[in-house]
Specification:
The complex is a heterodimer of chains A (326) and B (327).
Chain A lengths: L8 H26 L14 H8 L7 E3 L5 H6 L4 H8 L34 H14 L5 E6 L6 H12 L4 E7 L2 E2 L2 E2 L8 H6 L4 E6 L3 H16 L5 E6 L19 H10 L2 H11 L5 H24 L16
Chain B lengths: L2 E3 H15 L3 E5 L15 H5 L4 E3 L4 H13 L3 E5 L10 H14 L9 E6 L14 H5 L5 E3 L4 H13 L4 E6 L6 E3 L13 E4 L4 E5 L3 H13 L5 E5 L2 E3 L3 H11 L2 E8 L4 H12 L9 E5 L8 H4 L6 H12 L4
Parallel strand pairs in B: 2-3, 2-4, 4-5, 5-7, 6-7, 10-11, 10-13, 13-14
Antiparallel strand pairs in B: 1-8, 6-12, 9-11
The chains are: A alpha/beta (326), B alpha/beta (327).
């Protein structure tokens, strides 16, 4: 992998750190589930870090994203803080949503994250609406709609892509093809060429290796700049893989995919390893420096988990607050 | 005072709010030059342009979802849903997204949007263009539901809805679009959650929504000739519901009939009747009565359709028997 045209060490190392932060967050979230300290379930983003980080590094804080049930990666990549995230996962008052949203509904408005969404494809309208707002109000903000291959089955997506194309809205549809919608391979659920679906609306469509964060970022920087000039919308198909099951409780998955397949992705196509190898190969960073980043993030995450475990639950008086805005 | 139609009242309310607040825009099917099939929005595109009166494809979930996202990011969209029956198409965007966003975000995100749609049978439009589905959205916490009963009400409630920081669904009775009522020239708003005592009476309380207010008024005239005085309460908004005014009236009259054009089963009449029974039981001289639409799909044939909705004679008959102790 060579990126002769992009030599921004600070940005590369930030992307490395952000991907490590996502992986480390997920490892800790998984442990919280396995040790029965986390209520409910959660969906791991591990393996897909290159997608969220590559795209979000190309965005400004004021740009909007909408996320999915597998949303921790997007949330972190858009600038969220570990403490408030773990608090949210544990239903604590100091969580991003005061514990009322949980893993599947984390929103971080201050950083432009309009929220994870537990309805597959459910945020396609919201992202497109954010883009319509931006265009009408003249803010120059870009909206990115993250969704998985599973959402390709939802009609809403095509309705809003049609309107986004008709109205030239500043939105990027980022389809994370991690190959499985729940427990079923994408080939059993989506017919034809996936990119062609967007192309049929006249939306320029791109395909990129989601495990190569620099490739994702380079493409994203280009598209975000073009969207700001009014050349959107765009569609990106990002080929990636989720290391864990559909959710943390999906342990026995041999019936829908082999252990060998999982191993191959982890060993040969891990986005963190790929970027790490490139950074050391290009002598942008040494292994010691990368190890220091990983250690620092690990310490941060563990401290945030401890903080969240000790944090207070919302008081009972909160239960009927925030049903209506004042 | 001048009289204008309900249609003109809605149009004026939207136009005034759009002049007042540049973040307000409207989108829906055939809303621009066509001004909707009922011509309610006639003339708005000429004043505000196609950037603010936006014709959409026939994609109800799509444009409703777009409104939700726009509302979360600094706009105040008004969604025009051509028929109330199409609510079934947009339920996820309204009930899973718009209604829950403020709560799920711990109060950080707001969805200040209005969805205006219609209701009402007896227009010979058959089962998929005649339903009154307000109970569906009234069931979902996070939504407000307004039901104007006249041109005056429609204007004041619409203006309040547009300024509200929550998703508001307004149901206009499509049979009332051409009905005139006195509407002042000067600006006014009607606050949500404050019922209107349409008629004072002593013998029975009619709690009536939307066009059922007129049905109740006609029944009250019939009854008055017989010496029975009905009090009529128009809740104006069923969410929030002005329970206090309803209970106060029932405590005075000791009898209540709840009249609403939604299906009776599990509907608005059931909810209001239950609250009266729970909270004014010892003041009642007779069981609370419900009069909703029949629990059948709305039939096309006029001979059948007219049987499905409450009528002045039907309401008067029920009230008469209630007062006589026959129920």
């Amino acid at each position: 992998m060579s990126r002769a045209d992009v030599k921004n060490a600070e940005a590369y190392l930030r992307m490395y750190r952000q991907m490590v932060r996502i992986r480390t967050f997920e490892d800790n979230a998984n442990q919280l589930y396995l040790s029965a300290k986390m209520p409910g379930l959660t969906h791991m983003y591990s393996g897909e870090e290159g997608v969220a980080v590559g795209i979000c590094e190309a965005l400004e804080k004021t740009d909007h994203i909408t996320s999915t049930h597998r949303g921790h990666g997007h949330c972190i990549a858009k600038g969220a803080d570990f403490r408030q995230m773990f608090c949210e996962l544990l239903g604590k008052e100091e969580g991003y949503c005061r514990g009322k949203g949980g893993s599947m509904h984390i929103a971080d408005q201050a950083n432009g994250n309009l929220g994870a969404n537990a309805i597959v494809g459910g945020s396609a309208g919201i992202a497109t609406g954010a883009a319509l707002s931006a265009k009408r109000l003249g803010t120059r903000d870009v909206a990115v709609c993250f969704f998985g291959d599973g959402a390709l089955g939802q009609g809403l997506l095509y309705e809003v892509m049609n309107m986004a194309a008709l109205w030239k809205l500043p939105v990027i549809y980022a389809c994370e093809n991690n190959l499985y919608g729940e427990y079923t391979h994408v080939s059993e659920m989506a017919a034809g060429d996936l990119k062609a679906r967007a192309k049929s609306f006249g939306i320029e469509s791109f395909e990129v290796d989601g495990q190569d964060v620099l490739a994702v970022n380079t493409l994203s920087q280009d598209l975000v700049a073009r969207v700001r000039k009014g050349e959107g919308p765009f569609f990106i198909l990002l080929n990636t893989y989720r290391y864990n099951g559909h959710h943390v409780g999906d342990i026995d998955r041999a019936y829908y995919r082999s252990k060998q397949e999982e191993q191959e992705w982890k060993e040969k196509r891990d986005p963190i390893t790929i970027l790490g190898d490139w950074l050391t190969g290009e002598k942008i960073a040494g292994e010691t420096e990368l190890e220091a980043i990983r250690a620092e993030v690990k310490t941060d995450a563990e401290a945030a988990v401890r903080y969240a475990l000790d944090a207070a639950y919302p008081p009972a008086t909160e239960v009927d607050q925030h049903v209506y805005a004042a | 005072m001048r009289e204008i139609t309900l249609s003109q009242a809605v149009n004026e309310a939207i136009a005034e709010e759009m002049r007042r607040d540049p973040t307000v825009f409207l989108l829906g099917e055939d809303v621009a030059e066509a001004g909707t099939p009922f011509k309610v929005l006639k003339g708005l595109v000429e004043e505000f342009g196609r950037e603010r009166i936006i014709d959409t494809p026939i994609s109800e979930p799509g444009f409703t979802g777009i409104a939700v996202g726009a509302a979360m990011t600094g706009s105040r969209p008004i969604v025009d849903l051509m028929f109330g029956d199409f609510l079934f198409l947009v339920m996820d965007q309204i009930c899973n997204q718009a209604a829950k966003t403020h709560y799920m975000s711990g109060g950080k995100l707001n969805v200040p949007m209005v969805l205006r749609t219609n209701m009402g049978a007896t227009r010979r439009s058959a089962a998929q263009h005649s339903q009154s589905l307000h109970a569906l959205v009234a069931h979902i916490p996070g939504l407000k539901v307004a039901m104007p009963s006249s041109a005056y009400e429609a204007k004041g409630l619409m203006k309040t809805a547009i300024r509200d920081n929550n998703p508001v669904i307004i149901f206009e009775d499509k049979l009332m679009y051409q009905e005139k009522a006195p509407v002042p020239e000067e600006e006014y708003l009607i606050p949500f959650g404050q019922a209107n005592i349409v008629r004072a009476g002593t013998d029975v309380t009619f709690v009536a929504t939307s066009s059922m207010v007129q049905v109740a008024q006609k029944a009250a005239v019939i009854l008055s000739g017989e010496g029975i005085e009905a009090e009529i309460i128009d809740p104006r908004t069923i969410v929030p519901l002005d329970e206090a005014t309803i209970l106060e009236s029932v405590r005075k009259t000791s009898r209540a009939i709840v009249i609403d054009e939604g299906h009776q089963n599990y509907g608005v009449t059931a909810e209001i009747a239950a609250r009266i029974s729970e909270k004014a039981f010892y003041y009642l001289d007779a069981p609370v009565q419900r009069m909703g639409a029949m629990d059948v799909p709305v039939p096309f044939s006029p001979a059948l359709e007219d049987l499905t909705v409450p009528t002045p004679d039907g309401v008067a008959d029920r009230a008469r028997r209630l007062v006589r102790g026959e129920i």
